Amino acid sequence: xxxxxxxxxxxxxxxxxxxxxxxxxxxxxxxxxxxxxxxxxxxxxxxxxxxxxxxxxxxxxxxxxxxxxxxxxxxxxxxxxxxxxxxxxxxxxxxxxxxxxxxxxxxxxxxxxxxxxxxxxxxxxxxxxxxxxxxxxxxxxxxxxxxxxxxxxxxxxxxxxxxxxxxxxxxxxxxxxxxxxxxxxxxxxxxxxxxxxxxxxxxxxxxxxxxxxxxxxxxxxxxxxxxxxxxxxxxxxxxxxxxxxxxxxxxxxxxxxxxxxxxxxxxxxxxxxxxxxxxxxxxxxxxxxxxxxxxxxxxxxxxxxxxxxxxxxxxxxxxxxxxxxxxxxxxxxxxxxxxxxxxxxxxxxxxxxxxxxxxxxxxxxxxxxxxxxxxxxxxxxxxxxxxxxxxxxxxxxxxxxxxxxxxxxxxxxxxxxxxxxxxxxxxxxxxxxxxxxxxxxxxxxxxxxxxxxxxxxxxxxxxxxxxxxxxxxxxxxxxxxxxxxxxxxxxxxxxxxxxxxxxxxxxxxxxxxxxxxxxxxxxxxxxxxxxxxxxxxxxxxxxxxxxxxxxxxxxxxxxxxxxxxxxxxxxxxxxxxxxxxxxxxxxxxxxxxxxxxxxxxxxxx
Length: 605
Known about the structure:
CATH superfamily of the largest domain: Creatinase/methionine aminopeptidase superfamily
Distance between the termini: 51 Å
Number of domains: 3
Radius of gyration: 25 Å
Strand content: 15-25%
């Protein structure tokens, strides 16, 4: 069936492209800071193709439209773009070109690629500029063509900011800033433009609400050895924030003045920036001023990213407490699902709303850390499926319900996935479920030497699945912020080698997700996700050994476990984990029926 709405929008876009001398126009999933989740104002790609997943880039030509996304969204993107005339390019699949490879092959000398330079990172912009210049193609980065077409576009988000206490953060802004300036000296720089929103919030001990499920404010930080300027929207600065900034020495300027500020200032020395998270238009502005100031722009690893990832003692203490409370509430939700499925009306959406409401009862609740994923049976094969009130499957007393959820509280940000058996399941599903659980537990129990990255240990999670010739098209783990973004770097767990991609060492104090899965299109999806903390495991002449400790304590559904698909050592890991779940959660659960149920579902097998 033809999607006339999307086709009409693409037609209007092509007309605007022609009027502005643009032959191809590119639209990513990003805001001005390369944030993972973008506010409605930035959802240009979704407006022009219909696909609303959190990752994807749309490229439009006069007789072409293609959307690139990763394995989490292949099924979803294909479904949402039916009848639009937009082709799906499955990233990382054999024979599928990257966007730059596609443009190199199809663009001709004298043609122009256009994009809003504020929503493309410098690393991507430079790569495209370099490759397209070889074929005589140019870039046009100063025009947002959606402005001419999207007439009812939402406004730029603008919400009150707030202050976190030093006691809650474990470290003051002054202490963090001192550490940053030491790194600037190591890099030989005297100026640092910080564009990454969660890094700015972590550094300043401020928070906002400009990105859905991420407590951040649209902002830039301009740092020198004796000055700290924070660019934020004036309407977001409350009296509390103003007083705090005055007290700690933060100079406030309007968010919309950043480009004019950079154009008008002479840099006092070499400038540090991170090309992954500095947008291309800002970079071009800085580059012009750097040349005039006769200083160098230095693209180095953003020092705040690693500082933020290694949690301090206060953060770790609070995170552990928050995860226990969150685990107890999710366990109560699983009990509710088990007892009510098939007896009361239940859909994916109403189940998600039930869990969201239960989480909101936890003291210190601030907001969800991402929209709850509640996916029944075949819908769970779409790794990041999201049900809607008017488009949700009924949850019946058969099969499984996958729920991936989390929240931000005073004291931490959570993320956890459980796949819940709600009725009869097949032998194949039990085999897949058991292998997934074995992988999660193997990774959590592994020991490794300091110096390893996530790529060294990812195999522990995949090995039980690879043993039965299946895999999952997403990473195994990501870092998680402290009262910040649910996804953060620089560390992650991935198996695939990618040339030029930085890898971060796993360090004590980091927390990371452990989430293997199985996704069988048209049949079922399984994901079991715990969050683990990197800890020291002992040191000897061979070096410092590290390992993981569970932060998540939620029962694994024994109704889907068949030990014939499990190695004896993994059965032991499951029993040990369930013993810890029971001991840690029992004091937090008051309902006697749930306490009795918890004892049964964590029994030794």
